[in-house]
Amino acid sequence: MTEEELVEYFKAQMGKDPDMASAVAAIRTLLEFLKRDQGETLLGLRESLTAATDCLTGVDSSVAVSSGGELFLRFISLHHWSTRTSPDVKKVVLRVLEKAAAEKKRFSVYVTESQPDAAGLQMAEALRKLNVPVTVVLDAAVGYVLEKVDLVIVGAEGVVESGGIINKIGTYQMALCSKAHNKPFYVVAESFKFVRLYPLNQQDVPDKFKYKADTLKSIKNCLRSIL
């Protein structure tokens, strides 16, 4: 499987469902890569999969792709290829709320817009279909609405070795506001989101996990043109 085919398959998986986590798409792509790989040794297989993971990280530089690749490498074996993984593609926070709604729990939700991709609007629409009362608020209005809520739930792009999380911009401010208001702050994440990374502070997080691959490439191109 060439790099072009690998990237094309990954993008096709992401295109099938906009809500699919990039880590899930990466794992499915690596499974397909595994089916086509002709490696005969475990060492050769691991090297091929590592190179494939690096290739996918170049397409989508999120920490979820990296952690998904690491998890996949951790459990590969030369036998029993019939074993498959089929993780749920829905957002984990939405799944938690869906479960609560299914159990007839009574609650309402404040959802931030989550700009720039407005992911919060999509979640709000999904919650309305479940007949859950939902209010969409500006990202900057978190501090204002927190005095009205009982708890805060967020997802995570990655869970690092210190127990901290890497997530969309704005999560840190939300956590600080929650602490100031003495509100419980919960993080829900899939097991494949755990990543071997130990950033010491916000600035220590590698750039490849902060920005999209396209953004990093644009920055590099701009620097080259300046130099």
UniProtKB/TrEMBL annotation:
Parts of the chain that traverse the membrane: none
PANTHER family, alphabetized: TRANSLATION INITIATION FACTOR EIF-2B SUBUNIT ALPHA (PTHR45860:SF1)
Localization of this protein: Cytoplasm, Cytosol
Keyword Cytoplasm included in the entry's annotation: yes
GO annotation, cellular component aspect: cytosol; eukaryotic translation initiation factor 2B complex
Pfam families associated with the record: IF-2B (PF01008)
Keywords of this entry: Cytoplasm, Initiation factor, Protein biosynthesis
Role played: Acts as a component of the translation initiation factor 2B (eIF2B) complex, which catalyzes the exchange of GDP for GTP on eukaryotic initiation factor 2 (eIF2) gamma subunit. Its guanine nucleotide exchange factor activity is repressed when bound to eIF2 complex phosphorylated on the alpha subunit, thereby limiting the amount of methionyl-initiator methionine tRNA available to the ribosome and consequently global translation is repressed.
MF terms in GO: guanyl-nucleotide exchange factor activity; translation initiation factor activity
Protein name: Translation initiation factor eIF2B subunit alpha
Family: Belongs to the eIF-2B alpha/beta/delta subunits family.
Coiled coil start-end: none
Domain of life from the UniProt record: Eukaryota
Species for this entry: Mugilogobius chulae
Subunit description: Component of the translation initiation factor 2B (eIF2B) complex which is a heterodecamer of two sets of five different subunits: alpha, beta, gamma, delta and epsilon. Subunits alpha, beta and delta comprise a regulatory subcomplex and subunits epsilon and gamma comprise a catalytic subcomplex. Within the complex, the hexameric regulatory complex resides at the center, with the two heterodimeric catalytic subcomplexes bound on opposite sides.
Entry keyword annotation includes Protein biosynthesis: yes
